[in-house]
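Hey, can you fold this one?
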Amino acid sequence: KYDHLEFLKVPRIDTFSELDIVQAACYTGKPSPNHVYRSFPVTRKMLLHLKDLGRHNCTAFEALVAHVWKCRTAAVNMDPSQPSSVSFAVDCRKSLEPEPLPDGFAGVAVTEAHARIPAGELLTSPLHSLVSKVQEARWRATNPDYVRSVLDFLQVHQATIHQPHGFTISAWWRIPFHKVDFGWGKPVYAGPVTCSLVQFVLFLYNGTEDGLNVYVALEPTEMARFEELFSI
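Sure. Predicted structure:
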């Protein structure tokens, strides 16, 4: 019923050596030498402006996802016929009846919302049209039938997230890293400096209650183009 294009089927492996397990546990990844890393400030004023452009009673998150999606797709100079996609995690704890997670469960229970359209169509679409795509993806990811389909697909295919022509957004700006105090005061910055996952865009706390930062990894020429498009 669902294609689940956001996932890649992984061949089943029945045996792991002790070395495989140790290497997997210790792997931290290395930043790409071909990419630069930038953090772009987003003010409250900019968020309100994006919400106005987004219409549809959208949230600040949905409007910002749509804006970053369009800017990044333009920056990487995709073929207009290629599908451009964006994914982000959505809480699915309340999406199944009866709820499968016990009271007091402290782990993560998310599904991956996935929006996908041809790059050419995306770049010629107004922001409110892209917001609609983001909202549709968010609604689908919390639909009980879809959540059960994701669970079945992952169990059968041992799949992993797959973004050949897209990226994943992870929203960290409401995670209170900035409140952690190890004895020398609250941090000035909370987030990565570099990251091996260049297809991830992070929404980070900016040290105030007004706005946030958008953390991006791109190649130098792509970053220059992204910076030009991102500022509105």
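The CA atoms of residues 156 and 228 lie 44 Å apart. Let me know if you want another pass with a different chain boundary.
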